[in-house]
Amino acid sequence: MRVVWLVAGIACVVLAGIGVVLPLLPTVPFILLAAFCFARSSTRAHNWLINHKIFGPSLKDWERNGAIRPSVKRKAVLTIAASWLLMLFIGFELWVSAIQFVVLSCVVAFIWTRPNG
Predict the structure, then answer these.
(1) Are 25 and 3 a contacting pair, CB within 8 Å?
(2) Rounded to whole angstroms, how far apart are CA atoms 49 and 81?
(3) Are the CB atoms for 54 and 88 separated by under 8 Å?
(4) How big is the chain by its Cα radius of gyration, in Å?
């Protein structure tokens, strides 16, 4: 089972890397999932991710307290708003925009209700 968790963790890191350049593929959920998978498979891989200079501090905040840093919250909300506005300009159907607005509002509410890291 450890091998399955390790492969899943590696796949999540790869998908997160792709998500850095593709706007439709989110990076953060894949990094969180990779940390979860590595915690169940490989202490070495988990420590590498937790001590990573970019992802490490946020992962430590999340693992300790379920916290998100205020600067990260602001960036996330701005990115979410920009993506929704871009969708409006592209010209999706109104019902699609409304559904996305509701879903993204729930995501924003979740982000802002987390403790500050």
Answers:
(1) no
(2) 29
(3) no
(4) 16
**Six-digit token pair at 51?**
């001590």
Q: Are 101 and 84 in contact (CB under 8 A)?
A: yes
- pLDDT one digit per residue (tens) for the chain, 117 residues: 999 999 999 999 999 989 888 767 778 889 999 999 999 999 999 999 999 998 888 888 888 888 998 988 998 899 889 888 888 888 888 898 899 999 999 999 999 999 997
SS3 content of the chain, % helix, strand, coil (to 5): 80, 0, 20
DSSP state of 25: S
Distances (CA, A) of 67 to 2, 21, 83, 93: 28, 25, 24, 36
Tokens of 52: 């990573």
What's the token pair of residue 53? 């200079």
